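Ligand: adenosine-5'-triphosphate. Inputs:
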Amino acid sequence: MILVAPGVLPPARLTRPCVSPGATLGVLGGGQLGRMFAYAARIMGYHVVVLDPDPHSPAAQFADVHLCAGYDDQAALLDLGKRCAAITTEFENVPARSLDMLAALSAVRPAAAVVAIAQDRITEKSYLAGQGFPVAPFAVVRTEQELRAALGNIPAPAILKRSRLGYDGKGQAPVTNLEHAVTAFHLWGDEPCVLEQRVALEKEISVIVARGADGETACFPVAENRHQDGILDVSIVPARISAALAQQASGMAIRLSERLQYCGVLAVEFFVLADDRLLINEIAPRPHNSGHATLDACVTSQFEQQVRTLCGLPLGSTRLLSPAVMVNLLGHLWADGEPHWGELFQHPQAKLHLYGKGEPRPGRKMGHFTCLDESIEQALAAALEIKARLLKRAATSAHTKESA
Ligand code: ATP
Ligand code: MG
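Predicted complex:
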């Protein structure tokens, strides 16, 4: 199918094959990232099918169809492949085999081979280092013997990270001595790991780059990220770094997307060292938590961009409309019931996003909010104040209930 759009765009942008609104798109994974993808696709006029084993999938609330089945369920995959003109994924831990199977039935973006790299830290770090991208010193650990040898090359303090299925700092153990490392390794059932040097971070930043099927690329403004207990807490956009460093990080993300022959939205997490050197921490073949501010602060959100790359549409503008600060809302804020949203709504430039999750477990990402303002300092001050007020109200009502 060829898109014939009204004529303000340069001719080259009109001739690529694309999946037009009205078609059906699929997404593997029905969490918050799938939900925001589904929402972006629906408002653009697409139909959406979500595959997720969770009957309470947040994405299903915005989808036309929810296939409630496992990611390796052959019948469900076949159904998904037949229904959809193009399929993407909300997370990297879907079996690459499932993506391969779907690729025989439909367009799958990003490709299974790239998702396979990002779902395994050993493959990911080896790929990045092999391609000449800077990463923290690391060693591959598959046996206790390799672990002992690795500690010779990567002295403590270090971090032992499971190679697969880690997120939000889970599957990571700080290593201060050999005994720690061996205990963690055995606790995880001798699963393959990487031992990584703990580096002195000046800052953490991330770049989200979109690359179309024809090689067009566009980066969102660099985000500056603060973590708490291994989970992203606050993203500040634009990052408070020099223009030269922002350009360097974006350039690296673009080069990586080109090297991977990537099609889709790719997130690249960086460590910034004291001398402004950049190291790539990890990559995610999908929209990223640190890109949620784009929903309210950019001409095109990272989720609309995901739809565009998936469908072969031209990329949207990533221009920042306003400085913005995003704060994650985790389950403990619900410890005493629904948070006091009045504290947030009082602020006219705060935007609330809730993910429709029923069970607010501690540490679970339940939603986020974004504060826009004229300067990044004002946006940050407002965001931190709202966060503090919400936490205080939650603590006060928990205390009142306890003493009643
Ligand atoms: P997420 O899902 O939030 O991206 P993750 O479980 O994939 O997290 P990482 O990104 O590897 O894990 O690490 C989580 C955080 O731990 C990093 O953002 C950083 O703050 C810290 N960290 C990880 N590796 C290192 C390191 N080598 N040196 C210093 N800090 C580190
Ligand atoms: Mg990370």
